[in-house]
Amino acid sequence: MATLNSRVPKSDKIAEKWSKHKEHINLVNPANKRNIDIIVVGTGLAGGSASATLAELGYNVKAFCYQDSPRRAHSIAAQGGINAAKNYQGDGDSNYRLFYDTVKGGDYRSREANVHRLAEVSGNIIDQCVAQGVPFARDYGGLLDNRSFGGVLVSRTFYAKGQTGQQLLLGAYSAMNRQIARGKITMHSRHEMLDVVKVDGKARGIIARNLITGEIERHSAHAVVIATGGYGNVYFLSTNAMGSNATAAWKIHKKGAYFANPCYTQIHPTCIPRSGDYQSKLTLMSESLRNDGRIWVPKNLDDVKAIKEGLKKPTDLVEEERDYFLERRYPAFGNLVPRDVASRAAKERCDAGYGVNATGEAVYLDFASAIQRYGKEQALIQGVQNPSNEKIIQLGTGIIEAKYGNLFQMYEKIIDQNPYESPMMIYPAVHYTMGGVWVDYNLMTTVEGLYCIGEANFSDHGANRLGASALMQGLADGYFVLPYTIGNYLADDIRTGPIQTDSKEFDEAEKSVKEQLDFFINNKGTHSVDYYHKKLGNIMWEKCGMSRNKEGLEGAIKELQEVRKDFWENVKVPGSLNEFNQELEKAGRVADFLELGELFAKDALNREESCGGHFREEHVTDDGEAKRDDKNFAYVAAWEYTGKPSDAILHKEELEFKDIELKTRSYK
Amino acid sequence: MDLTLKIWRQKDANAKGKLVDYKVTDISEHMSFLEMMDVLNEQLVNTGEEPVSFDHDCREGICGMCSMYINGEAHGPDKGNTTCQLHMRSFKDGDTIHIEPFRAAAFPVIRDLVVDRSAFDRIQQAGGYISVNTSGNTQDANSIPIGKAAADDAMDAATCIGCGACVATCKNSSAMLFVGAKVSQYALLPQGQVEAADRVMDMVAQMDAEGFGNCTNTGACEVECPKGISLENIARMNREYLKASSKG
Question: Quick one: B53 and B137 in the same domain?
């Protein structure tokens, strides 16, 4: 049985662990790298940056993505920014502070050594991206600009308008293109990995489906890297892309990779509320908006009623009639509390009946005071004497437009309301999953030669991720961590030679993949794949969403088992195998989500505490805040698959906090 | 609202395609266009017909995966958006909507509304990058100040999502706006100067090899571009090309 050894370097001080580790791990010489193949599945920030860097080092990379181009991976939709401890603002930032904020923000459920390493390489990421031609925002002196994000007291977030993820991904994509042109990366777009192949216990290849022709293909390598993102679409509605899925992560779980902390899900506070049953996905409004937006609901239920009936407008309410609930509850951090805290506070108000739209699931995000503040400042700068209120609003609106124009435009397109004039309506939505495939310090899973990077792994964000940290982790893993650590493993493979694909292991993996696909096509079912996906999503949102309790979780497990049974009897997939068939693609993904959802609920049931994105109603303080239990739950819950989710075996990795004192997370 | 859809159906790249009529009813004005397509597809699956294939992914206007030529316009009637951002409030009850794939010789149809845009990837591979390896030793990000105006212009060019609306719209199926945007992004930044001449020559050569047409300055691409990429980028690319050619 695989053991749960985190392989964190033991003796050194935390700030020295990574540099010493790098100095002592095995290397592969350049001539031998040419004889080694690496498969990378997923081409987002983690997979794209890893593919490019491994190819630059000399390895032969085979990269895969389900989209029509690596540039489409969902990292592209990240808006707000990327953190780095550059201290360009001179506001007291340092590697230690970034490390500290991330561990605290994660509610003390992440692995210290990994987070410190992340902080150490954060500055290199910015240097690397600028060298690639990523057009970060700059000030008038030509230097890089920063902004603030939730849960921190410094400005360390670098950004490119509201499209930071896009620009960073296009940077990684350009680095990939250079290697594709050199023949060092073979790119397989419109391909989906459907299983991993293990030979003598080591990951040696994958089975993939060509999504255009339907052909099942065998690809071999000396190591396999999974960089396929998170499992937020287990909720059906999330801010993930429609195609984002957990199939690669779940398939490797079934082949021996432990799955860690599935219940840690991030519900992002500022998303556009849903409008109807036909809704296919939710859209995020960047957290950066909380720099200038103030979140509120009416103080009186009469006003809520009047607004819903259209008798009053939000702008009719004077300051005294508004409840700026984040500023009220958390004066130190105000509107910039971490995401989990902000989401729960919004839910609390809406549950109490103060939601401001038809569904009762929306709060206001208001820019009126920021427009006033910026307007007055601009009037001074531009020398406008005694400006009228209209002039102030005009000047202030200009600044807000320059900062968030594309986000405001996106909002207006969806809601058909002008957010410069009337406050935005927002509500929390599933956005990111902190849980994922368990990896050691080298980012290797419990299967030898099988690595997992980016959102797909579990390691750096604990129970809650801070804003602008996902981009940092994806690029840290791909540019600066994996390319070093994978050499340590591959150093033993220099004499192996090419991995053959005609072995019985490949035969068996291909056979099981084909059997599942055959089943879907031949099943004479009655319901579409989406029918089941929506059912699954509903159970997850109602019972494994922003707050959870024992009864609900037990009910969820039972319901999920029933839906899964129904799915395997009655799912209907049109078309045939050997063609472009989007329903068939979805069927396999939903089948995996249906299993993952159950493990998720099981994990949430096991974790009898409230921490980060995991809020158990049984575990709250007297004033309604989350109550963590460090004595019994300061561990990573890593689940081993043994046949079905209900039989998964729990393995614990105890978390040690040597450099940060464990204390109650307070933002008051 | 109730609508009639005339949708291009084509089984694969080699099959002959045709427009097929479909009816959808009770469509809410708040639905996105692709959610309306979801409703149609659910209807088709339930009645045992093959659903309409179309590309889409992020559904928030940034991945560039969705396409569709709707009533004769790339990404439909609204300006400055992708098909996934188009909402049904832009249509009215009883409308007939024509839905076709992006059409260009360099974008062959894969199935129904799905086209192959890998030519764009190959153009980028020809030179759409700065040759810098990953290392922890690149110089500090603030060591080269970049004027705000140049940085902002580079950003505006870099916002291209690679959807191909410019090509689909252009009567010549020209990819000049797409290529111009990438050439411009790097031409405007000091980091891009070293390889500027080779880059523009190689990318233009690949663009021609893929079978895209030339630019005749009608400006339709700029009008239909969901990200508002400006024609200035084509002008800048032409300048860069001339500069590079004269060097020999």
Answer: no
- Spatial distance between the Cα atoms of B224 and B115, rounded to a whole number of angstroms: 18
Reply yes or no on whether the pLDDT at A1 is more than 70: no
Q: Taking CB atoms and an 8 Å limit, are A480 and B142 in contact across chains?
A: no
Q: How many CB atoms lie within 10 A of CB A429?
A: 27
CA distance A350 to A353: 5
Which pLDDT tens digit goes with each residue over A586-613?
999 999 999 999 999 999 999 999 999 9
| Residue B247 confidence class, pLDDT cut points 50, 70, 90 | confident
pLDDT at A173: 98
Model's pTM, two decimal places?
0.96
Owning domain of residue B184: 118-247
Task: Report the distance separating Cα B127 and Cα B124, nearest Å.
Answer: 6
Q: Per the structure block, which two tokens stand in for A331?
A: 């004066």
> Is there a single domain that holds both residue B243 and residue B159?
yes
| Mean pLDDT of the residues in chain A | 95
Write out pLDDT tens, residues A389-433.
Answer: 999 999 999 999 988 888 898 899 899 999 999 999 999 999 999
Q: What mean pLDDT is predicted for residues A573-581?
A: 96
Question: CA nearest A104: which of A156, A164, A146, A153?
Answer: A153
pLDDT tens digit sequence for A437-462: 999 999 999 999 999 999 999 999 99
- B8: domain CATH number? 3.10.20.30
| ipTM score assigned to the predicted complex | 0.98
CA distance A39 to A417: 46
B164 contacts on A by Cβ (under 8 Å): none
Residues 204-243 of B with CB under 8 A from A: none
Number of domains, chain B: 2
Residues B74, B186 within the same domain: no
**Domain limit, last residue, from B91, B110, B129:** B110
Domain shared by B190 and B239, yes or no:
yes
Amino acid making up residue B183 = V
B114 touches chain A (CB under 8 A): yes
Per-residue confidence band for A3, with pLDDT thresholds at 50, 70 and 90: low
**Contact partners, residue B169, CB within 8 Å, separation at least 6:** B73, B74, B220, B221, B223, B224
Q: What does the block give as tokens for A307?
A: 């607004």
CATH number, position B136: 1.10.1060.10
Closest chain B CA to residue A407: B60
- Judgement on whether residues B123 and B70 belong to the same structural domain of the protein: no
Is B27:B42 a contact under the CB 8 Å cutoff? no
- Phi–psi pair at A382, nearest 5 degrees: -85, 0
Closest CA relative to residue A338, chosen from A234, A460, A235, A469: A469
Q: Between chains, do B129 and A177 touch, taking CB under 8 Å as contact? A: yes
Choose one of B110, B130, B147: the last residue of a domain: B110
Residue B101, CA atoms < 13 Å, CB-side half-sphere? 27
Six-digit token string for A380: 């001074």
End-to-end CA distance of chain A: 46
Looking at the fold, whether B102 and B125 belong to one and the same domain comes out as: no
Side chain identity at A666, as an amino acid letter? S
B136/A480 Cβ within 8 A: yes
Rg (CA), chain B: 20
Compute the distance between CA of residue A287 and CA of residue A298 in angstroms, rounded to an integer: 22
The answer to whether B71 and B77 are in contact (CB under 8 A) is: yes
Do B47 and B21 share a structural domain?
yes
* Domains located in chain A, CATH noted: 270-428 (no CATH), 505-634 (1.20.58.100)
**CA A429/CA A5 separation, integer angstroms:** 35
In chain B, positions 3-22, which contact chain A (CB-CB < 8 Å)? Answer: 11-12
Residues B152, B100 within the same domain: no
What value does the mean pLDDT take over residues B24-32?
95
Instruction: Give the 3-state secondary structure of A432-449.
Output: EECCEECCCCCCECCCEC
